[in-house]
Amino acid sequence: MPEIEGAWERCIELAKRVGNADIQLRALWGLVYYLIYSGRHLEALSPLDRFAEVATREDAAALPDGERLRALAEFQAGELKAAHRRLEALARGHHASSPRVKLGRFHFDLTVGIRSTRSLTFWLLGFPDQAAQAAAESVGIAQSIEHGMSVANSLVASALLVALWRGDLDETDKYLALLDDTVRRNDIWIWRPLGRTLTAWAATERRSPGSIETLRSSIAELAGGRFLIRVPFYRSVLAEALATNGQLVEAQRVIAAAEAGVETQREGWCRPEVLRVAGVVRMRGGDTDGATRLFARAMADAEAIGAKSWQLRIAVSMMEMGLQPDATERLERLYRQFDEGFSTRDLARASALLSSVRTSLPMGKRSDRS
């Protein structure tokens, strides 16, 4: 929506003209947030630089808020390690007990935001338990300061994603109930469409009747409102649910839209997962060669950005579908790289697959490694 971007730019220019640094910073933050959540995180880098310049010159206390958004933009681009390093530095310098200056200026509590975004990098980098802990801390701190906007943001931006990635549907239900209550009590209408998408995603995990239709319509609502952040990923969730349900024609159409969206929006963080689902859809349609190529591309992308959790998921899919003779060795090698999260769905599936292979081997060829 160019009128929204234009309004922020006019506000920034007016604030600059009258010498009001506080309003200039608020407007720059608003522009950056708008660009990131409309799927244009790379375009957010220039106003982030302007934010840093103004903050350095006029209000150094605002610098960490800009750095947190820069880490989010880096995450979206797939620069996971850079984002994680930035968030770790912010976490070391900012604690839950740190003074909260002008909480309403940037809408969300900074301590909550740091932990929320860090939970995403933790999960993708292969630390699922630390991801869950960071997400829970972000929600808990937001509740403790009784700031409804921070509670809702921590839930839709990370806590629900992490819970669903982990396959923890009990935790998901708890977070969904809290989100519904928070949005209703505080009338935070902006998060309702995304809340419906996350609720529908949880329902597809349970294969609830009507869940695919609800997920389809909620994603269309996000796209129609230009709330494009992570829409390619949500489309991959829908495509996999459709393929599992035998609706291959629509699954192919939806995953093609997800692939196009990843490239258009440059959402490098989820490109490996979108390609993995594209491979699953191809395989279910009988195109083994096409699926093999897609899995190889997905794995190469996941390795390039250091996304161990995506690598594991890709290896699990390859092994479940009987692709490549070295699939077992690859999966075992990846499984060994994890030091936590063994109760999560993906690691449990990997363990079960490896155990089934070991029990089928002759006694002398079995590995005693878990």
Describe the secondary-structure layout.
Elements: H1 2-18, H2 21-37, H3 45-58, H4 63-77, H5 80-93, H6 110-125, H7 128-144, H8 148-166, H9 169-186, H10 192-205, H11 211-224, H12 231-244, H13 248-265, H14 271-284, H15 288-305, H16 308-320, H17 327-336, H18 345-360
Helix pairs in contact: 1-2, 2-3, 2-4, 3-4, 4-5, 4-6, 5-6, 6-7, 6-8, 7-8, 8-9, 8-10, 9-10, 10-11, 10-12, 11-12, 12-13, 12-14, 13-14, 14-15, 14-16, 15-16, 16-17, 16-18, 17-18
Q: Tell me the CATH architecture of the domain at 94-187.
A: Alpha Horseshoe
Helical residue percent band: over 70%
**What oligomeric arrangement do these chains adopt?**
single chain
How much is the radius of gyration in Å? 21 Å
Principal-axis shape: globular
Number of helical segments with 4 or more residues: 18
| Strand/helix succession | HHHHHHHHHHHHHHHHHH
Please give the alpha-carbon distance between the first and last residues. 52 Å
User: Might you state the CATH topology name of the domain at 94-187?
Assistant: Serine Threonine Protein Phosphatase 5, Tetratricopeptide repeat
Q: How many strands appear in the DSSP assignment?
A: 0
Biggest sheet architecture:
none
- Poorly predicted regions: none
Structural class determined from secondary elements: mainly alpha
What fraction of the residues are assigned to beta strands by DSSP? under 5%
Commentary on this structure:
The protein is mainly α and 370 residues long. Among the domains are: 1-80, no CATH class; 94-187, Serine Threonine Protein Phosphatase 5, Tetratricopeptide repeat (Alpha Horseshoe). It is 75% helix and 0% strand. It contains 18 helices and no strands. The N and C termini lie far apart (52 Å). The model has no long low-confidence stretch (mean pLDDT 93).
